[in-house]
Amino acid sequence: MTPAPNRRQRTGNRRRGTKRHRSRLQRHLQLSHAQVGFMATLQHECLYRGGIALIHVLAIPPLALLYAHLRDNIGDEASAAAINVFINYNIACWIESFNTHRICERLDYILHDIPPEEHQAAQPSRNIRFNSWDDHTCYIKTTFDKNKLLRIYRCFVLEDIAAQNNGYIRIPTGYLNQRGVPCVYNFHPEELFLYFMTRMKTGNDHTQMCDDIFGGSEKRWSLAWRWILFYLDERYKNIIGHQGLLRFVDDFPRFYTAIQQKVQQSYVHDEDEHNNTHEETSGLAFLPFDIFGFIDCSIDRINRPFSGPAGDYEGAGRKPEYPAAQRAFYTGFKKLHGIKVETVFLPNGISTIFGPVSARRSDIPVLQMSNLNEFLVRIQIHNQHEYSALGDSAYHVNLRCICSYFKRYAGQQPLTDHERRCNRAIKKARESIEYSYGLLSELFHICSSSRHNRLAKEHPYAIEQLRAAHLLCNIYVCLNGEKASGHNMFCCRPPVLEDYLTL
């Protein structure tokens, strides 16, 4: 049977189809497999009854002519009476079949046509602008209210790029038209910005974003997503990278004072967890290390690179690159495939990063790759006092600007009570960098799932995506204060957003 058209010709209403062939947003308007079977039966009965009605109505005119000929010309009343019975039978069958056809058609219209108001209610919004959302919607979808979103939007200067192309950002598709001119998609800068912020917050894939909110083609939006990630990474690479420490080198003494004030505070120490006993420990008299911030590495899980078969056919083998690629990103410490980011956290809540790089490397090789120690020495070469970044016990490497806790080496005396007390106090302060990692995952769910971190694809962007998430986390701190981490440890104000994003 010929499939039903997408629209009914008489009314112009859309027809319901199968759920698996429709977007997630419109599946409630579509039919299950049982309903599809009933629709096919109903349409078959409608066609059958219509055909029977057509056969009977076409048989009536010749029978009427034969009846008139037998009665008037030949005078055979008996034959004419028999023909009259056939005519009445065809009329009765036509009426019954036609009425059944109309009932089936009406029932098909009621059950399988989508009214315009119902279809319009299920359509996602398109051409979204700042005026399309109120403050509450902006906060739910992006973590920022409308005024803060406008401040971020102005700092990203997307409007200046769009002003060069009649108010739209032109993103190439990678194809040429018949005249050899590159094909492009046009995006309004406000809609592109809101799409970026919403996806970073929700972590939805392009299909969900198109079905629920923005509409349009997921392929079109995937190109826009990749464009804005690379644009922000290129524009702010010297801010989110360790080069951003140059902006705060004059604040290192202030950061040292803030950390020292933190370790001088008294805190409650769990003496025995089983008996639920606590001990209040007094703070330190002074900070034993000249530090301005904390350093650590975090690992984000990724999809296994080059996974899956080498071909789209039964019995296809593995891709030839998979053994080396999967070993390159596998970490035996976490027992997963991942990428690692080296982070320097400042008391004002701002962090700078190096990477991401392969999680196969431990923290010290990543430190050597970043040349952070040499960089810190160079930027403080003209300062009267030199400050270091403090890491956990993995950073006992005897470097000039990288230090760690007090540690007992083999053949040495055990740590003194004062040294152990110093380690506990400094560890309490160093917890802030762990809170910053939790804040990143809580605010931007795109970092919480490995399905968004895919390498070895045709157009990979996992690295730029993770760096953009760290940038937005710093922006959140600038707009909400250092208390944004949930632990206002150092009472150190972050920079103003416009100053932080100034190139």
List keywords for this structure.
503 residues, alpha+beta, six-stranded mixed β-sheet, two-stranded antiparallel ribbon, 17 helices, elongated, disordered N terminus
What does this entry look like structurally?
With 503 residues, the protein is of the alpha+beta class. 48% of the residues lie in helices and 13% in strands. The chain has 17 helices and twelve strands. The strands form four sheets. Strands 7, 8, 9, 10, 11 and 12 form a six-stranded mixed beta sheet that branches. It has a two-stranded antiparallel sheet with strand order 1-2. The longest helix has 42 residues, at 33-74. The protein is elongated and about 135 Å long. Residues 1-5 have low confidence and may be disordered.
List the helices and strands and how they pair.
Elements: E1 14-15, H1 33-74, H2 77-112, E2 113-114, H3 116-121, H4 135-142, H5 146-156, H6 158-163, E3 169-176, E4 182-187, H7 189-202, H8 206-214, H9 218-235, H10 237-240, H11 252-263, E5 267-272, E6 277-281, E7 291-301, H12 322-329, E8 330-331, E9 336-345, E10 351-358, H13 363-370, H14 372-379, E11 388-390, E12 402-403, H15 417-443, H16 462-480, H17 497-500
Parallel strand pairs: 7-11, 11-12
Antiparallel strand pairs: 1-2, 3-4, 5-6, 7-9, 8-9, 9-10
Helix pairs in contact: 1-2, 7-9, 8-9, 9-16
Q: What is the percentage of strand-forming residues?
A: 5-15%
With helices defined by DSSP (H or I, 4 residues minimum), what is the helix count? 17
Overall shape: elongated
Task: Compute the average pLDDT.
Answer: 86
The string of secondary-structure elements, in order, is EHHEHHHHEEHHHHHEEEHEEEHHEEHHH
Helical/strand content category: alpha+beta
What separation lies between the terminal Cα atoms? 65 Å
Q: What value does the Rg take, in angstroms? A: 36 Å
DSSP, total strands: 12
Largest sheet data = 6 strands, mixed
Helical content (DSSP H or I, runs of 4+):
40-55%
| Uncertain regions spanning at least 5 consecutive residues | 1-5
